[in-house]
Amino acid sequence: MARYRPIILEGLLLQEGPQPVLQMADGGKWRLLAQGRQDHLLGRHVRVEGVREGHNIVAVDRITAR
Question: Pfam families in the record, alphabetically (predicted)?
């Protein structure tokens, strides 16, 4: 599996424990490694841009509401 690849995803931003996750329409989930607070985006459809760092992990560069 390729690591450290740029990736752009869209889905529902949720909080699971201390970490935000992106719930995809197909039922998959991505764990997000994000700096700062995203509380204002929780429960909203968002676009995540970042770098894939593992099977289901994205190091986030930017999160924007859709």
Answer: DUF5818 (PF19135)
